[in-house]
Design brief:
4 helices, transmembrane helix, elongated, transmembrane, membrane, Transmembrane protein, about 130 residues
């Protein structure tokens, strides 16, 4: 097997699953969706992939060579997946605390259209 493919095999095999998890993280919850949240999500996804890749390399290069070639891949895959999930779990927790729905001090104010404001206070509704 090509050395580069062997070294990156865990990331190659997990890339579709990482893409699914990343898409779910990016699209849900749908609100609030503003620039700060998009920046936070982008950085979190980048850190998750970076941590996963570094963990994969570490696992592959430090595995016991006497255990067999497959165990290098098993350790690399386990470490890569664990680090990806760790970073994403921390990002979910931090994002929830930073960008709560209804947290007026942390999300940009929404403009109230004049028609809806007038219909709420209208005496004709009584």
């Amino acid at each position: 097997m090509n050395h580069q493919v062997e070294l990156n095999l865990a990331l190659i095999l997990f890339l579709p699953w990482f893409a699914v998890l990343s898409a779910l993280y990016w699209y849900f919850p749908k609100q609030p969706r503003h620039g700060a949240r998009k920046l936070f999500d982008s950085v979190a996804l980048l850190l998750a992939v970076l941590a996963s890749a570094l963990g994969m390399y570490w696992g592959f290069l430090t595995a016991d060579p006497n255990a067999g070639a497959i165990w290098k891949q098993v350790l690399a895959t386990s470490v890569a997946y664990g680090l990806f999930l760790l970073v994403m779990t921390l990002a979910l927790w931090i994002r929830h605390r930073l960008f709560k729905v209804g947290a007026a001090s942390r999300s940009p104010p929404a403009a109230i259209p004049p028609a809806s404001a007038a219909s709420v206070d209208s005496p004709a509704a009584d």
